[in-house]
Each structure stands twice: as C-alpha cells, then as structure tokens.
Specification:
The chain is an all-alpha fold. It has one domain. The protein has ten helices and no strands. The chain starts with a helix and ends in a 12-residue tail after the last helix.
Length: 231
Amino acid sequence: MIRAFELAVRQLGDPKLRVIIWQSLLLSLVLQVAIGVLAWWALQSFATFQWSWLNEAIRWLGGGAVMVLALMLFPASFGIVISIFLEKIADIVEAEHYPTLGAARGIPVWVGIRSGVVFLLTLVALNLVLLPFYLVALFIAGLGAALFYGANGWLTGREYYEQVALRRRDPADVTAWRKANGGVLWLTGVAIVFLGTIPILNLFVPVLGVAAMVHVAQSLKPPLIQPAGPR
C-alpha cells in the first residue's frame, strides 16, 4: 500500500495528469464550498430554540462548527470527483506502469456518476448517524478520530476499488476480490480519508487516491474460490 502511494505521488508531475489535477481541483473547491454553505445553513436552521442565549451561542460557534462539519463531510465529495475523472486517471497510470494490460473495457459514464452520487449520500448519512458518537468520543482521546477514519475509510476503500476494478472485471468477480482483500482495501481507504483531512493536500486526494488504488488493485491476492461467470 505504501508503495502504491509512493508511485502515485511520483506520477502527479505527469503532464497528462496535470490537466486532470487542475480540473479535479476546481471541482473539489466547488464541492468544498457547497458543503460549507450547506453545513452553515443546517446550523442556522438548527438555532431555533426558545432560549435566545442558546441560539446566539450556536451562531457564535457556527464558524468553527462549519469548518468541522465541512472537514467531516469532505470525503463525501470524493465520489463525485472520481466518477468524472476516474477513467482518464486510471488509463494514464496503467499506460505508464502496466502497459501489458491493454485497454480497459471501461464503465459507462452514467454508471460512474450514479455510483459517485450514491457514495456521497451514503457517506453523508453515515457521518450524520455517527455524529452523536463523535461528540461522545470527544471526551476520549483518539476515539473520535479512530471512529471517523475507520468508518469512512471502509466505505472509501470499497468505492475506489470497485470503480477501478469494474473497468476490467464483472461485478461478481470484483466482489470476490474485494472480500478476499478487505483489510488492504480498508487501510487504503483510511489513508485516502486521512490525506483528505489535510488542508490543501485534500484537494489533490481524488486524483492521488485513484492512482494509488490502481496500483493496489494490481497487487491484490486472488480469492480462494473464483466466481463463476464471464470475465
């Protein structure tokens, strides 16, 4: 996994990837602003208690809370970004490092976008459900971070791998390989989410994450029982 990210970072200077990096950077910024505005609106709408002092406190703390919520929900934007740029990123990485694979059959654009939207909504729902647990975990050092990275990393690793793998394998095959390598994919997802919480660097994570997952996908162990059906 470490080697995969090392190779991905080295290739960020590839001229073919630079255009995609700038495009994904712009889209990431737009989504980050949208998430921040949505979080601010949600907090302002929440400040409707009968005690004015409590409403004022919520509004005063709103700035910091918006930053926290935007940071928590930022991984949810990854799905939209990779659904648009994944094919190009994966093709560039494979052409450079795995030329013998040949051209991938790819996946329809609408399938990728649908998957990205579902991923976004799932992550938002997951973090909203876990929000009370995050608040409780604030009183136990490290527990909140472990919960956040663990849960989001699992979904992120699954989403990135499936979108990369479906370009070359049928769904049943992808599921079998994912189950056989759940630990590696989970750790890869955790690494992607962790990098996504680092300011500035998080804007490059969609591209970096896809590139790294292409390398991870090539290093996975095959399932003990191969699924039946066409390849």
